[in-house]
Each structure stands twice: as C-alpha cells, then as structure tokens.
Specification:
The chain is an alpha/beta fold. The protein has three domains: about 160 residues, Rossmann fold; about 220 residues, ANL, N-terminal domain (Rossmann fold, 3-Layer(aba) Sandwich); about 100 residues, 2-Layer Sandwich (GMP Synthetase, Chain A, domain 3), CATH 3.30.300. It has 15 helices and 26 strands. The strands form five sheets. A nine-stranded mixed β-sheet has the order 2-1-11-10-12-13-14-15-16, with helices on both faces. A seven-stranded mixed β-sheet has the order 7-6-5-3-4-8-9, sandwiched between helices. The radius of gyration is 23 Å and the shape is globular.
Length: about 525
C-alpha cells in the first residue's frame, strides 16, 4: 500500500488483505505456517480457510455472528480464524485453559452463535454450554468427539468445499473482539472493525518492524491474545512471511526448542519469559543469532533485565505498549533506536499525549495519563456504554496508564493510575520500586502494591521471588528495604516484604495485582 497513513476501500474484508491477496501476488508457494515438522503454504492455508468458512456457513453462521475460538496454537486456529472473517462473522478468542465459569461468562457476554473448540476444553465447555445453550447454533470439536450433537471439526473441513467467495463486508463492519486483561474486573471486549487491524499492520509491522516475506516469527504469548494474533498471524501473513506455532505451554525450554527448530528472525516475548529464559540453564549455550529483534510488551521491561539480555544474546529488545482498545503497539522503541527503560516514540500514523486530571496536556517531564489516537482504535466496549464513555473520547482513547514524555519525545512508563501509591503524602510508582529490587542479586521477580497499616495509612508492600540459593529470612527482608532506601530514597523503600514461590499472573502473563491485594494483609510479611 503506497498511501500513508493507510486508506482502505469501502468494500473491504481483512481476510483478503491478509490471505487471499498473497495468492494474487504470486506468493501462494511461500510457507505460511509451520507446526512442528509440518508446514502449509499460503495456497494450502487458503483452501483450509475456505473449507472452514463453508463449514461455518453450512450451520447458518454469517454476517456479524460471533464465533468463539477455544483452540491451542496450530493450523486449526489459523483456518478457523480466517474462515470466520471470510463469512463476515466476528472472531472472539479465549484462552483454551480458561475455567468453566470464564467460558460461560464469555459465551453469555458475546452471545456467540458458534464455538470452535479443542477436545481438551470439553470438561469446562460442556458445563458452560449448559448455562447459555439457547443462543449457540453450532459447536465444532477439534481432535476428538463431543456431546450435544457437536460436529467433528476435521469432518466438517473434509465435507466442505475449498472454494469460497469472501463476504461482501465493508471496512467499518465488525471483525473481531479483543478482550482486555480484566485486571480490575471481568474482561471487556473492545469491538474492532475490518480496517482496524490492517491499519496498525501498515503503521507498525511494515513501517517500524520493516517486515518482509523473509521473516520467520515465533511467539511466547498464544494466538488468543491480540498481541500474538498480530505479531504471529496477521503481521507475517500481510507480507508473505512464515508464522511458526507450537501448541504446548510456553516455558523457557519450549521457547528455546522453538528457536532451535524454526530459527526465527522475530521473537514476540514478554518480560516474565525474558527473565525466565535468562535464568534457564540453556541461556549459557543457546544460539539466538537468527533473531534480528525481540519484541516486548504487556508489562514494564525493567532496564536491568533488558541489559542482561543484551549482554548475553546481543539481540535488541523493542519494548513497546499496545492495548486491546488500540489493537496493537502504538508506542515503541525502533530497530537501531533503543533507549533502555523507555517505551520509545509514537508509531508513525498515531498521535499520543500526556494529560493531567483536568484533561489538558501537561509539559514534558510531568506525569499524567496517556491519550492516544489512530485508526486502529476500537469503536467501544461491547455492551458497556459507561466504560466506553470513560475511555473513548471522540478519536482519542484514554489509557489508565501513567506516563511522562521527555524532551526527545520518548515515553516513560510510570504505572497504572490505580496502582500508584501516595506514601507519606508523596506519590510513589510501584514500577520504580520493582525495578530497583530487581537490581539486588537475591531477587528474581517482584511486585509492589499498597496496603493499609494499623493506622489506616497506605504503605508499600513488596512481594519477592528469590533466586535459588537465597533464603527468605527476616534478614533478607531488612536487607532489601535498606537496598531500596539507599538506591532511590527512604520514602520508596517498602515497609513490608513478603516472599512467594511465584507471582500470580493472568493468562496474558501480567502480574495479577488484584490477587495480591485480595491476599495481602498489612500485618503479614517482614
């Protein structure tokens, strides 16, 4: 696409943009997907996706019908996802490891007309369907047989034609729901249109990452998470590159295995896995020279962790921020222009500013909430008018995150507005304390929250995961408090320190601070 910022025709289906157009360009023979030792070309993926679309259409699924995908990463996910778009339906994606209660909530909330699920989720999906069965027209089960007259996905694919004319959708028709992380309640679905995803692809994937058909992609987050749906499905498909998938849970061992097998050029990562990979035995011998960049998002990347990675592997980490509301990354460090600790600059095509409590822009260096706009912005939250009004202001999306911008137009993350603490009358950012604790040789991970002491005052409490070989005695707690006090100031030293075997996390890898708060009592800790 030559125009920038990008523009799309009125009649537009994003399945054509990401898949069918590769065939028209003569890239049908390119390897599109690899899973283990198997691979599929773009022509083969097109036929599978057409079959998937026809299977859905045969069950009455069409324009604006929501379809819930509960599949592990693999070719079935890819075919189902494109098939949904091809018939004009709306994709909704959920972690296949979700609980029965969470599945029931998403089914009821989205009013999904169809479900494409892996056989391994049936123990939780069936109870969920019992509660919301009335609006579900079709349930397809991959890799096994299910009850309720469900259809085997493999049979539906074989029985369906591999020829399909894409639905005559408009660029402003609904295409997909992306769920928020649910850190402050039940996840909300940000409603996105057919042009939203390609718009960010043109701005970020092509302009910043400079992706080409020679790229090979691997992702730590799974495809149900919009961050990975972008970097490990949409982005490579937009340029004829290769998406490499593995269905197993992401562990350091599994990620090192994927790098060794697929030799990717781009690795989508998160800070938690970056830390785990560095602490793993294979970090001593792993060859990551195939990578031209590592992407990081989802939570703050501490400068010390970034430095350790660069010292060991010599591969740039492009730290950035995106959101379900904006689909993908809109502020980022760029190749060859990385400043550790910062989130970089605004992606071309987007605008961002820092605003105070009055809604007016604050001077560089001052802290405020982030507002961003770009044509990948969701139209609102599904079935949540009040939250939509609080977040979406015309073209602008107001984030709950606090930032400051420096004189070089780089953005620096401070913390979430509802996480920043006021200790002894002074605002304290948990992220700064966490980054400081990470500098201590005994600390592997940390998370800081505010709790109320016996006097009703807010104090900082640090939850710390220690490295092997270090105890969790009172002496270490005192040592950590002293360490922070000497490094960044007495008022930022956590009054309480508790030791955990691991930090609670949500299905996107972010620290679940709500779980920490629910279990935190001021008298506990050291």
């Amino acid at each position: 696409m030559d125009r920038f910022p990008p523009e799309f025709p009125e009649r537009f289906n994003m399945a054509s943009y990401y898949l069918d157009d590769r065939i028209a360009e003569g890239r049908g023979h390119n390897v599109a997907v690899r899973v283990g030792a198997q691979s599929w070309t773009y022509s083969e993926v097109l036929k599978l996706s057409n079959r998937a679309g026809n299977a859905l259409r045969s069950r009455g699924i069409g324009n604006e019908d929501r379809v819930l995908v509960l599949l592990p990463d693999g070719i079935d996910f890819v075919a189902a996802w494109f098939g949904i778009l091809k018939v004009g339906a709306v994709f909704c994606m959920q972690n296949p490891l979700a609980s029965a209660d969470d599945m029931a909530h998403v089914l009821d909330y989205t009013r999904a007309r169809a479900v494409v699920a892996h056989v391994s989720v049936l123990d939780r999906l069936v109870p969920a369907l019992d509660r919301v069965r009335e609006h579900v027209r079709a349930v397809f089960v991959a890799d096994g047989q299910g009850p309720y007259g469900t259809k085997r996905w493999e049979e539906a694919i074989i029985e369906s034609s591999d020829e399909l004319e894409n639905a005559d959708t408009k660029k402003d028709d609904m295409a997909g729901f992306l769920f928020t992380s649910g850190s402050t309640g039940k996840p909300k679905a940000a409603v996105h249109l057919h042009h939203d995803f390609p718009w960010n692809t043109e701005c970020y994937a092509k302009r910043v990452l400079a992706m080409t058909e020679k790229d090979v992609c691997v992702s730590v987050p799974k495809l149900f998470f919009g961050y990975a749906t972008g970097t490990n499905l949409m982005f490579p498909f937009a340029v004829g590159a290769t998406a490499c998938l593995f269905p197993a849970r992401s562990t350091p061992e599994a990620v090192y295995d994927a790098i060794e097998r697929f030799r990717p050029t781009l690795l989508t990562n998160v800070p938690t896995m970056i830390a785990q990979m560095l602490d793993h035995e294979r970090a001593k011998t792993a060859d990551l020279s195939c990578l031209r960049a590592v992407l990081s998002a989802g939570e703050a990347l501490p400068e010390e962790l970034h430095r350790r990675w660069l010292d060991r592997f010599g591969v740039e980490i492009l730290d950035g921020i995106g959101s379900a509301e904006m689909f993908h990354i809109y502020i980022t460090n760029a190749p060859g222009d990385v400043v550790m600790g910062s989130l970089g600059k605004v992606v071309p095509g987007y605008e961002a500013k820092i605003v105070g409590a009055d809604g007016n822009e604050v001077p560089d260096g001052e802290i405020g909430r982030l507002k961003v706009r770009g044509d990948s912005c969701a139209v609102g939250y599904f079935r949540d008018h009040e939250s939509s009004k609080a977040t979406f202001e015309g073209d602008w999306c107001l984030s709950a995150d606090l930032f400051r911008r420096d004189r070089d137009a780089r953005f620096w993350y401070v913390g979430r507005a509802d996480d920043v603490l006021k200790v002894h009358g002074v605002f304290v950012a948990p992220a700064e304390i966490e980054a400081c604790l990470l500098l201590h040789p005994a600390v592997r991970e940390s998370a800081v929250i505010g709790v109320t002491d016996d006097n009703g005052l807010t104090v900082a409490k640090a939850f710390v995961v220690v490295r092997d070989g270090h105890g969790t005695a009172d002496a270490l707690a005192q040592e950590l408090r002293t360490f922070v006090r000497e490094k960044i100031g007495a008022h930022k030293s956590p009054q309480l320190v508790a030791f955990l075997g691991e930090l609670p996390r949500n299905d996107r890898g972010k620290v679940n601070r709500r779980a920490l708060r629910d279990g935190a009592e001021a008298p506990s800790g050291n």
